[in-house]
Model the fold of this input.
Amino acid sequence: MSIELQTKQVFDSERMRHYLNGELSVLHCHHYSTLFTQLADDAQLLKGAKLLHEASAESFYPVLTKYYRENNVTSTEEKVAIAEQYYGFVGLGQVQLTLSDNGATAEMQHSHVDEGWIKKWGNREEPVNYIGQGFLAAAVAAINGNSTGSYSVKETQSIVAGAQTSQFTITKK
Amino acid sequence: MTTCVTGINREKAIQDLSKISVRGNEEGLIPAFGVLVQNLPANFWNLFSMKILQAAGKDLYEDAGGLLENAAAECGYHTGWGIVNSEEFKAVIGPMIQNAPEDVLHGAYAVFTAWGWANAEIVELVPGEKMVVRAYDYYESDVKDEFKPTKPFAYMIKGVCRAFMDIAYSDPYPNGFGKFKCEQTHGIELGDEYGEFVVTKA
Done:
């Protein structure tokens, strides 16, 4: 791999807070992430899944754009590699992102949300990885220099439904 | 008996436990303490909580808040159990435990603090009955910069506090969940100096 994600983890012992590359970060478990996901899923009236997707996209977009800027990551290939590595570093899973004319496709070999959901409740037919979908929307926007919210994501195959990998299509709105 | 005397050297425990480095393995996952862990921007959790509460409006606000608290309680119960039975906990906190389960609880709050959930400690403990926790800094209070909550917002701390009491004093794991409740009586996000959480039997 031509570029490697640089990480700096700092614990501020005054405020008792953790920072990953200068961004406040926090450890949580799959019970927390899947219960947030279930809450989003149940709240159909409030468009909960969309809200979780948006929260994910809005929080990861500035992380990636800041990283690219501060580390002088300019080539598309390197930006993709950094986004994939970041996703794995923070424990969200293993993803390969392939850019296309109108967006991208992505494949996840492992997914924290899907595997956490299966650990907690077992399989289900519909996709649950709204956090991953938001990340992918943010990543493609950050890589292409577009604003957050400019891509839609459709999960076409899911680990939670029993598939070997999760697959996504990311399309410019 | 009300007590907050403990054999736990909180400062040392936090110092040791905060050094634990976490990163995804070759599969991009962080299996630890019997669960899958992630290390996400704190802002993500706050953003979703804000969005869902705003969308809930007055009619569904309490319901949405209850579900956010429950997510944290289940997380705290299962992950908390994994933590207090982990090799890391036994290595750092184990030698300091003189009086179980009270010292285990104090140790759990050292982990709570070291993991960046909140700078929180027990200020009053009536074994098996009541616990009061104060949080002097916590990421959930950061919402005050962009969202003015009129009600306490620290659902994560609230849920984890009652879960920790379940681990310490309810039926043995995994059958003791939900036997305690928690009220947040103060909040930095509301303008108070600290957050305060009072756990009593449900």
Q: What stands out?
A: The mean pLDDT of chain B is 92.
